[in-house]
Specification:
The protein is mostly helical. It has a domain of about 45 residues. It has 5 helices and no strands. The longest helix has 18 residues. The protein starts with 18 loop residues before the first helix and ends with a helix.
């Protein structure tokens, strides 16, 4: 018999299924992704180059996987995005906490599209 979604007892999965429908491990996938991100940031020396410059604490293994303080997490994301864009060779002004979040995201996305 052919393997695939047409086999008895199997069904095709819609793209919008939640983690519970994809299997028991899917709910933890975001934690694995965050750990991979942290490993890559450490390889780029983010602690020395990005965090010390802005007097910020290092990220925990699950910093972006759990919504603890959305304002702080957004600012950390913007700080890291600006640092990564600059590290890639493009000048990019570091966003401030008082900046309009929509404008900051628009600037980040615009810069990434130009890559």
């Amino acid at each position: 018999e052919e393997a695939g979604p047409g086999r008895r007892g199997e069904r095709e999965r819609p793209a919008d299924e939640g983690p519970a429908e994809r299997g028991p491990g899917a709910a933890f996938h975001m934690f694995v992704v965050m750990e991979d991100l942290l490993d890559k940031l450490k390889l780029l020396s983010y602690e020395e180059e990005a965090l010390r410059r802005h007097n910020m604490r290092p990220l925990s293994r699950h910093y972006f996987a759990l919504p603890t303080n959305p304002g702080e997490q957004f600012f950390m994301f913007c700080t890291l995005a600006a640092w990564l864009i600059t590290k890639a060779g493009r000048p990019f002004e570091q966003p401030q906490e008082c900046d309009d979040p929509n404008a900051v995201i628009s600037n980040v996305l615009s810069e990434l599209r130009s890559f």
